[in-house]
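Human: I wish I could look at a protein chain and see how it folds. This is the protein in question:
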Amino acid sequence: MRLLPRLIGRRLLHLECDSGELVGTLHHLGLRAEGMDSDRSAIALARSQWPCVRFHRCRPEEFRPEIPYDVIYLSSAGRHWSGDLRTTLELVDRSLQPRGSVISDTQHLDEDVVSAIGAGFAAAGYVPQSGFPRSSDDPWWVFRRVPSASRH
């Protein structure tokens, strides 16, 4: 993944992390990665596989981080978040530090869903950095948070 070198050492939250394989791998590679999922059995499995990694079991609307994250990763496998973009945007707003980034892979999402998600993030004051609109050869997109003072 071409983004990985820029993420080493940063705090990352994987929204809808399922059983935590990616979170554990990213932690092993040097990111301060944490996962969040509402599925009790998925989080139990994640915690058993990666005991040194923090996993949060809650619904997105309940999540309140102690410290904002540098990066929030939205996996396309987590189609649950794409269906409720408002809740996702609220979670991102309260969980991401100023000038933080939202990263997603969109390879498994329909083009109209990707466009709606991108438009929602842009309307909420997030600036596309790469991958939007989606190109066929690069399914990754990155949105950067604009500091609060200049957001609408």
About this structure: Helices lie at 4-7, 21-28, 40-49, 79-83, 85-95, 111-123. Residues 8 and 30 are 5 Å apart (CA to CA).
